Amino acid sequence: MRTRIKICGITRTEDALTAIRFGADAIGLVFYPPSPRSVSVEQAQRIVKSLPPFVTVVGLFVDEDRAVIEQIMNRVPLDLLQFHGDESAADCSGFGRPWIKAIRMRQETDLLSLEQQYADASGLLLDTYQAGVPGGTGKTFDWDLVPQSLAGKIILAGGLNSENVAQAVESLHPYAVDVSGGVEAAKGIKDAAKIEAFIAGVMRGDND
């Protein structure tokens, strides 16, 4: 099965359209003000309005109040919610949208237990642990920590770029990959050539 591709941290309409043109399946909008890739509701509305059909719009939140999430959902048509903080399964549920839970991977992380804990999630997004940083570290983690039995439910993130994504896909066969910093010219500003090269790398991994 083809590995799906999400380009996260989109802040500009032109970057969203570039990602889709090269073959991305989903874009990620960051609603976490401390992030340099955060977008306002107005920015998000403009980006989503520009998208063609069959593109999944993912809203990323970090330990946000339910009321704030609901307010944003009422103004921005999000297809999928991504929770990137210390949210419990109950915190992630009840919004009337499918959701995924980000897991910051450490040597001692028990993914099989977490998969049961977040059983209602559509998938687990695996990112690199760095103290005080909820995501976007630009660093990879040890892919051997991922049980092969979970590969089909995994969205692989953390330090991916055009140089390592083919190996990641070939090694793990994740359901999807997620990239932000690895396709940027600057934080929040995507680079079209890097997006094209990244997606080509995913396709190489699928075919190897």
TrEMBL record:
Pathway: Amino-acid biosynthesis; L-tryptophan biosynthesis; L-tryptophan from chorismate: step 3/5. Its EC number is 5.3.1.24. Signal peptide: none annotated. GO terms for molecular function: phosphoribosylanthranilate isomerase activity. GO terms for biological process: L-tryptophan biosynthetic process. It comes from the Bacteria. It holds the Pfam family PRAI. It catalyses: N-(5-phospho-beta-D-ribosyl)anthranilate = 1-(2-carboxyphenylamino)-1-deoxy-D-ribulose 5-phosphate. Residues 5-199 form the N-(5'phosphoribosyl) anthranilate isomerase (PRAI) domain. It is an enzyme of class 5 (isomerase). The keyword Isomerase applies. Keywords: Amino-acid biosynthesis, Aromatic amino acid biosynthesis, Isomerase, Tryptophan biosynthesis. Belongs to the TrpF family. HAMAP family: PRAI. This is N-(5'-phosphoribosyl)anthranilate isomerase. It comes from Candidatus Thiodiazotropha endoloripes. The gene is trpF.
